[in-house]
Input
Amino acid sequence: MAQNTRTTPAGTPTNVTQNHTKGGIGESTLRPDGTLKVTGEFAYSSDMWHEDMLWGQTLRSTVAHALIENIDISEAVAMPGVYAVLTYDDLPAKMKNYGLEIQDTPVLANGRVRHHGEPVALVAADHPETARRAAAKIKIDYKELPLVTDEASALAPDAPLIHEGRDDHHSGHVPHPNIVHRQPIIRGNADEAAKRADVIVKGEYTFGMQDQAFLGPESGLAVPAEDGGVDLYVATQWLHSDLQQIAPVLGLPPEKVRMTLSGVGGAFGGREDISMQIHACLLALRTGKPVKIVYNRFESFFGHVHRHPAKLYYEHGATKDGKITHMKCKIVLDGGAYASASPAVVGNASSLSVGPYVIDDVDIEAIALYSNNPPCGAMRGFGAVQACFAYEAQMDKLAAKLGIDPVEFRQLNAMEQGTIMPTGQVVDSPAPVAELLRRVKARPLPPEQQWLAAGEAADVRALPGGLSNTTHGEGVVRGIGYAVGIKNVGFSEGFDDYSTARVRLEVINGEPVAMVHTAMAEVGQGGVTVHAQIARTELGVTQVTIHPADTQVGSAGSTSASRQTYMTGGAVKNTCEAVRAKALELGRRKFGSYHPAWATAELLLEGGKVVTDGGEVLADLADVLEGEAIDEELEFRHRPTQAFDLVTGQGNGHVQYTFAAHRAVVEVDTELGLVKVVELATAQDVGKALNMLSVVGQIQGGTTQGLGVAVMEEIIVDPKTAKVRNPSFTDYLIPTILDTPTIPVDVLELADPNAPYGLRGLGEAPTLSSTPAVLAAIRAATGLELNKTPVRPEHLTGTGA
Output
């Protein structure tokens, strides 16, 4: 039975207010949540608390592919303190699956598990340890089935089908049921163009499975409501997408599932899919009590999707004067057991596989497989990361074979505004690829082997191996590498991409105050900062309040695809403009007879006043409003895009492109196989920097994530069992402050005339080119081919595969 009274959980997000005299776009205003986060006072979703709440626990499969022959929950149910144990048979609605695009993921396993760590049963208890012990008492009898773990086993004529009887909208055009989606792109005639090539290079590349490794684990709190619905407080990337997936499996109308964003400790794509949301709601509705679920780190590795591992097969040709003649490639992405975002990742990987280069003749194919490996989906860079690793290695091979400087070779073939993409789309805004490369190459190099000059005072942290104190300078060789990448911004391929903003302007305590309300997920990117800056710029107020994100306002789309500043920022801008127009009209009605400028001049709101474009003050905004509030809610959409043709891949699939380049400087102990990345210089065009401090932070963060996958990050899946072997931060390594080099940033601001303020989405692009730049530098130091990420010591010393 639902509770009779509703109280607000501890840790519920509240309005965030900043009072600035300036603080508009273009200024590096500080984050409103920054102080709370660095002092430990910020409430993350895992900090939420409700009186009389229960704790939820998920029981996950211990095998990767099996039939479930029996589930015995009797011992778990009998434990004191246990309120509920749920399995598939307890699900309340006809809809029992969910998914971002294809609803192929069961809420709880239905007679079969398809990957290691799949949810099978749920427990609610009065203490987290009780819930954990009860889950451990559930007995499951499995009958293991043959595994699908790679392309060969997935596409064999007698391959086990991961999903039998598929009827999704991709199933009709794929050549095998174990292919989630296939996207070819054909332009020109690659075979004929190859005949003009003086040199041809081929490469086979392997990209490892990367984890988003956000620090705040999946968590949330579900509170049953008096109307039979549920209030869910959760860390996510897309509130309304979650809502669309949650409500049907609960058997509730959407208006009875009320969602509020709680504090998010990072995301990077890993929170775009459902994790614990449905499970917490099911337990809350079954028990009539609030239920909190918090994953530990081990479970987090199984609770979200990862970056697709990939095999990439490339061929390029070039004339002796350095012009690329053609490109052929096949990209095979392992999507794991469920579709997640794999179809869209395929679209990105194929359409961006050529890189930021002019190549008229291409033959491209990208596919995503179903397998019994962990599900893979969205992660920062979204298909373009894997492709960039491969095509940039190819650029170095071509340059070396032609005897041309690798940067000059790239500049010779660099795209620019007006270039036609392999999909037939014209790049209709600045594409400063050659200039970005020029800037990173022109930057002064850091001193070589800095420890030599320091003598006995040398800091071992500057050496390969760092504090392990294994390298004393013997056999250390410097390497320098370059790379550049291209990434799309926003949702593509005809998706109706929009964001909503509600803005209220009123007088509080004698001061005009703007309230901005969106459903944008603030996952650390700084959207709440930028929204306040936009409101100050457009409404001329000093005080802006950001309302907590929830589903009581229209969708803001996902905090992904580098889209939020463009899309929800655009929605805030448009809505503020509408509020401003109403405020000025109100002023004309009240004060128009006092000054002719009310009727003849272009009017602005600045510093809490109505002013002419010449700076003359006509009225205080507080006097104009005088007890009245102006409230507007508007949607913002970018230019429409098109789905790619399923045969040729032609179509205007993307709304905007963004570019970044890197130069990596490494020092490698070639005897021990240890790498020290000394510097990762970057240059990126951001269109317009709305907040330069945030811009630089995003670029440096994305660069560091690319560094991680270059030299240390990989989820290891046992090929014999399809089990994850390293689900912990002890064994899955991410860069620390000791691993992260100096990252100087050069920012270009070449406006995109089609975007709000001319901005470009920027969060993903630096993740692309940092990885191949580091690999190129290591190759330069060692002379090894190195076609796999991450590079491990044994790859450099020849002591391992």
